[in-house]
Structure formats: C-alpha cells, structure tokens
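Weekly puzzle thread! Below is a chain. First person to post its structure in token form gets bragging rights.
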Amino acid sequence: MFQYIANVITYDIFRLVRGSHIGDSVNFFFYDVPKIYFLLITIIFIVAIIRSFLPPERIRSFLSRRNEYVGNVLAAALGIFTPFCTCSAIPLFIGMLESGVPLGVTMSFLVASPTINEVAIVLLWGLFGWRVALTYILSGMFIAIVSGVLIGRLKMEKYVEDFVYKTKSVASNSGKKLAWNDRIDYAVEYTKDIFSQVWLYVMIGVGIGAFIHGYVPVEFVTRYAGNGNPFAVIIAVIIGVPLYSNAAGTIPIVQALMEKGLALGTTLAFMMAVTSLSLPEFIILRKVLKLRLLLTFFGTVTIGIILIGYLFNFIFKM
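Winning reply:
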C-alpha cells in the first residue's frame, strides 16, 4: 500500500522519471515517511496496551534483577525479534527506561533492534549460506551487548531527555484491574504524547536519507573501500553513516558489494553502519538522548563495528 501511494505521488502526480536520482529520492521519501509513521503509531499503541497489563516492577525484575550481563543478553535477544528501525524501536526503549530497566540494558536493545533483523538473517542465509548469516547474528549481538555494558558502566542516565522519565505508566498508578476503555484511553494519550515528540525528527531524518538514497551509487563504496585498502572497513563505515535503510533493505546492496569482491567483514561493517549509525537516525535519536549520551552511544557502536569488520576480514581470509 505504501509503495503504491509513493509511486502514484512520485510518478503520476509529480511525473518524475523512474530510475532518475530525483525520482528515486522522492519515491523513497513518500514511501518511508508514512510507513514509519504507521509503524510508530501502531507500535506505540500496542506497547501501551501491553504495558497496561505489566506493572513496571515486573519488567524491571525480568531485565534487571539478575546478573547485569544476562540483562544485556536478554535485551539484545529481544532486539533480534523486534524488526524495527531505531526510530520505531524508540517507544519500547522509552517504556523500558520508564519501567526502571537500567540504561545500559536498554541500550543493548536499541543497538540490536535495527542491527539484527530476522528478515535479513533469512535473506543472508539464502544468498550467502549459514556461515555468513551466523556471522551477522553473532557480531551484531556482540556489539549490542558490549555497547550496553560499557554505557551502563558510565552511569549516563542524566543524559536521557527529561520527557522520557516523566511519561506516566497507567499500570503503576493503579492497583486495581483496569477496564478496556481505560487501557485504550491511556494508549491513545500515550501514543499522541510520544508521537508528538518525534514526528518532525523522523521526517527530517528520512528526508536526508532519501536524498542520499537517490544520489549515492553502489560503485561509490567499492571504489573507496575495496580490497587491498588497509582502511577499507573504516571507510565503509564512514560511507554507511549518511545512508538510511533497515537491515532487510540493505541486502540488495550487500549482495552487489560482495559480487564486486568486497570482503565479508567490510561488507558487514557497511551494513551495520547503515542500520545502526545512520545520520537520519542520529537526528531522530537526538530527541530522546542528550548530545553527550548520543555521541557516546554512536562512538561505542562505531568502534565495535570497525573491530568486528577487521576481525571477520581476517578470519574469512584464512
């Protein structure tokens, strides 16, 4: 449906040429903005309904009242099974923080959710075999867990935007069983509140991503991050940061890069940079995280991705 609407607006109303730079950019924008808004509203509403049944104490107990590393592992694993980009993972991220889940644990979820995608796992397995798919899963989990542990140790809770902690949970305000009307009213208000905080950042982020999507060819990556360049992984990450896509959306690019001979580690580093470190998502996350925490988050994940890229280039070269 979203693609059909985007095609009508781009090619029928604006009469742009299919396959042109501006046509691809405009089509991407009008496809992704309503899709992400729909996901955001739907996910926020569902999360609010679920949270009305789950007291914050229960969520906190599940993810925090155990060995801290187990909490990070569980949060990263949860991220695998939530096929969201960073912007649509924000409602769950906010809900975890509000429920008292430690910041480091929620960060493991926030990294894993856009980085590891079950659709991408299936596609990678089908196109490149189980070793590549397993490499993708393990490396993404490692980055999510280590990033969460490090950020948790830095005690940066004060660098989360104030509105996140001020969001009220209906489950925590009442000990009695709520009627469905109350749950729905709460979910609607919660959805309005969160969506009003992030909608503009989503549009700006997608706009930047759409422009780059239409004007940056695959050959640009292979030209500067090809084999033989000792800085290939770093360059691939730098190139990937301005781009915007989800994990499944990068698979055709990954296939093209590997067919052109780009090393596996370099390709995975590029893919993870696109899904976890994109400039549009940086802008979106800025509404939730203060600059110091945001830079720490991106810096930690960047270093992890670069190290993973070089490690797997070395392993699969042997």
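Puzzle host: Confirmed. Bonus trivia for everyone else. Residues 21-317 form one domain.
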